[in-house]
Amino acid sequence: MNLGVSFPVIACDRSGGPHNGNIYICWADKSNGPINTDVFMVKSSDRGMTWTDPKRVNDDLTMTHQYFPFVTVDQANGKVWMVYYDRSNYTDTNTDVFMAVSTDGGEHFSSFRVSESPFIPYSSVFYGHYIGLAAHDDRVIPVWTRMDEGEGTLMGALVNGSMTGKQDVDILPYATFQNNPNPFQESTFISFKLTAPSVISLELYDITGNLLVTLIDREPYSQGKYVRKIDPSQLHLQSGVYLIRLICEDKTLTRKTIFVN
Description:
Layout: E1 9-12, E2 23-29, E3 38-44, E4 55-56, E5 66-73, E6 80-86, E7 96-102, E8 110-113, E9 131-136, E10 139-148, E11 151-156, E12 159-160, H1 166-169, E13 174-180, E14 188-194, E15 198-206, E16 211-221, E17 224-230, H2 232-235, E18 240-248, E19 251-259
Antiparallel strand pairs: 1-2, 2-3, 3-4, 5-6, 6-7, 7-8, 9-10, 10-11, 10-12, 13-14, 14-17, 15-16, 15-18, 18-19
């Protein structure tokens, strides 16, 4: 696998915001050294007539590989999102998946890890540029392939677009917390995945902050993935916005969901 070669990817801002019309191109190369592949981006604000100098996107200070990037623009707000493979946390070929986001038209990026655990790709098995992401109105879905003992797996995640750094992502000891579908008309399913044993509470509130039901009441859970169902008919829900609150030890995270009757 030649980590010095990377297909360029292009995205255009059509959000109607302050950076509307910007064109972004990203790629990875070894211009900073043969053992230091980095992710770069250029942009044009005049329909491709002129371009900025390349800007390095990954913010690590290591001599390691970051490669196979993909870029998209959230057309609801103009945020620029990138996803790429990253080895900055290791001295071998262990590989994470990182994301980076810019809220100022590609001038500055904030990066964070999105994969739950590293993997080691086999040089004899191709896994290539099978990485990408979509974003709309701060709902961001990256997809990528990973390899475990030579077997490839397609992975994905749902990222809260308001989170822009490691501190936000790592605030609770779980990897995912979401409900699907959202909005929902019948049932919706809340899923969360713990990376460490924790005491959990899961609650549903109306938009004014009134507690409607406690789905989990300070119960100990081991590491793993869990799903809980919300049945609107049992709770006599009316159409509107509701809040799902997950309390993990002494930390709290809230998700908004919409019920359409």
